[in-house]
Amino acid sequence: MQALLVANSLVVLLPMLFMLLSSLKTTREIFQQPFALPAVLRWQNYADVWGAAHFALYFRNSLVVAVASMVLILLAGTPAAYALGRYRFRGNDLIFLYFLTGIMVPIRLAIIPLFIMMRDLRLLDTLWSLILVYAASGLPSAVFILTGFFRTLPQDLDNAARIDGAGELGILVRVLLPLVRPALAIVTVYNIIPIWNDFFFPLVFIHQDRLKTLPLGLTVFFGEFQTNWGLLFAGLTLAAAPVLALYVVLSQQFIQGCRRSVTLSP
Q1: CA 31, 35, 37 angle in degrees (round to 5)?
Q2: pTM, rounded to two decimals
Q3: pLDDT digits over 90-131, tens only?
Q4: What pairs with residue 222 in β-bridges?
Q5: How far is 30 from 37, CA to CA, in rounded Å?
Q6: Which three-class secondary structure state does DSSP give residue 28?
Q7: Where are the alpha helices (DSSP H) in the chain?
Q8: From CA 63, how far away is CA 21, in angstroms rounded?
Q9: Is residue 135 within 8 Å of 76, Cβ to Cβ?
């Protein structure tokens, strides 16, 4: 088991190390000595990416889209999961199964209807087209994960809070949400990484350069006859940094949630 974990860590970390080293080289150095340390650290690559390539603009667009999408996912998914996890009513399992179908069917299969819908709503070439699509695609997984966590909490917590005069919103916000923080971290990490790295939907919905997200904006480094690989790797490193930082911040909650899921599994 330890050997598998070490091998998996190397598979993940070595490409990131190669990307970091390549971001400090020239294109010639990358092709001549791809795995060697750079002779001279070219920090200028990062300055050129941030300034000349409109990286700050693309970064801001990606940040707005990712944060707004996650806010919508958590605001809509948490109450839905609370209702499905804490109350048993006719149709409960059917509604839960309906959300599960959103995980089973890839949203990219509906790209043509989505494009027509965004066109009719006049949301093409706006960040809202991306935010709404990402929120809709992330909602099923959020409901699935949070519902499982809500169902593991004892019902005595709800009854004790009601006896103290708490309403449903108070029970959710003050009593249960602090107990499902690991699940919220799992939902955040699970959804924000594909949102941050997505290239497909920005390519379809966004045409103006000022609205491009990072994955789409970094294509400016691919020229018709040549590609500045040093700047490209510098841009990729900067683009990956916020996601890695978020994962480090939420890692403890994420690990606790995974341990709890394993403990509660039959």
Answers
A1: 105
A2: 0.85
A3: 888 888 888 888 888 888 888 999 999 999 999 999 999 999
A4: 227
A5: 10
A6: helix
A7: 2-22, 27-32, 44-52, 55-86, 92-104, 111-120, 127-152, 156-163, 168-170, 181-197, 200-205, 214-217, 229-264
A8: 25
A9: yes
Token pair of 128, please? Answer: 């809202």
Q: What pLDDT score was predicted for residue 266? A: 43
* Superfamily holding 42-262: MetI-like (1.10.3720.10)
C-alpha angle with apex 100: 98 to 106, nearest 5 degrees? 105
Can you tell me which residue has the tokens 């917590």?
157
State the average pLDDT for the chain.
Answer: 85
pLDDT in tens, 212-224: 999 888 887 776 5
Which residue shows structure tokens 């994420």?
254
Confidence of residue 201 (pLDDT cuts 50, 70, 90): very high
Q: List the domain boundaries for the chain.
A: 42-262
